[in-house]
Amino acid sequence: MTPRIKICCINSIEEAMTAIAFGASAVGLVAKMPSGPGPIPDDLIRQIAGYVPPPVATFLLTSEISVEEIVRHHLRTNTNTIQIVDLLLSGTYSELKAALPSVKIVQVIHVIDDSSVDLAVSISDQVDALLLDSGNPNLKIKELGGTGRVHNWKLSRMIRENSKCPVFLAGGLKPENVREAIEEVQPFAVDVCSGVRTDGKLDRQKLSDFVQKALFL
Prior knowledge:
It is built from eight helices and ten strands. By secondary structure, the chain is an alpha/beta fold.
């Protein structure tokens, strides 16, 4: 199966349109985070999300950890997908889906060790997709994505093989390694931020190379 492509850390309508023109089926819009690249204001997220045409998915990356606050965040941004980058600590996924029935819910799993596999599989029947990344929410200043690091793809493959929902693969992907990552994990989609940027700006050549390698062109 040819994987879908999500381009993250989008910071303008122009970047969103460029990503889509090169083949992205989803764009990631990063809200306030404790660390990492690419955060933009909620009003800009809403503006970009309103401009992106269907059927492209617009992902709000939120660090909120309660259903109540996630719903409030969504109402400020109006994306069609919510990517929860930390673990949900207050409320349940079913409550979130009931509050936002037309919005897809994607839970990030930071792949650290075998316990990450168990966690991912246990959540996979409650959300629309999992996104496997290389952060560490256990640090004093949480890493919740955008690290540019590769994690253990063997663990990611175990998650993909046992997950009850589609799996996105993120974490240190770039044109030079995305094909190997796809062959190893066989994810539903791949997700990239820094791997297609130069000096923080979307690099059309890197983007083109990434898409061609990801789609085996």
